[in-house]
Design goal:
Distance between the termini: 36 Å
Radius of gyration: 19 Å
Strand order of the largest sheet: 1-2
Strand content: 5-15%
Low-confidence stretches: none
Order of helices and strands: HHEEHHH
Number of domains: 2
Helix content: over 70%
Largest sheet: 2 strands, antiparallel
Number of strands: 2
Number of helices: 5
């Protein structure tokens, strides 16, 4: 158990495996799409493709943490824990919130009056929180590298 607490990259790689499994499961659903409307253009992206992209990002983040462990550069523990917690817990939070939104606002029988604003706001907020959390790893890497090279000189 102590090994997993020290090696954060396992969390990212396990999450990537779960996301890949979920993307394979979602391939069976044709209507599992994300529709983005920009002025007069609709972008339709299948959820499985989004999950595969995010899984690739998580594999890359795990590789970064693994690389810093192998070259023996200590990252700031608080920033690492905060980045890992936000990055990993953002997906269960999204699914719980979207489920609660479906319970509170069931789909209407008349699709033109469908209220998708709440779900779009949820996706926007969670995406922004997830992207801002990725800045933590950038700050962590920069500060740790500066500390490493200044102590070495």
């Amino acid at each position: 158990m102590k090994l997993i607490k020290q090696n954060v990259y396992y969390y990212f790689w396990i999450t990537a495996i779960v996301l890949i499994a979920l993307s394979i499961y979602w391939l069976n659903f044709e209507d599992a799409t994300l529709d983005i409307n920009v002025h007069d253009t609709y972008y339709v992206i299948h959820n499985s493709h989004i999950l595969q992209l995010i899984a690739f990002v998580y594999i890359f983040l795990g590789f970064i943490y693994w690389l810093f462990k192998k070259i023996n550069i200590k990252l700031i523990k608080a920033l690492t824990q905060l980045h890992t917690s936000i990055s990993i817990l953002i997906f269960p939070l999204y699914f719980i919130c979207s489920y609660l939104l479906e319970l509170l606002n069931p789909p209407s029988n008349f699709p033109l009056l469908d209220s998708t604003q709440n779900s779009q706001l949820l996706i926007t907020i969670i995406t922004l929180v997830g992207l801002l959390a990725q800045l933590l790893i950038v700050f962590n890497i920069i500060i740790s590298l500066v500390k490493y090279f200044t102590h070495k000189i």
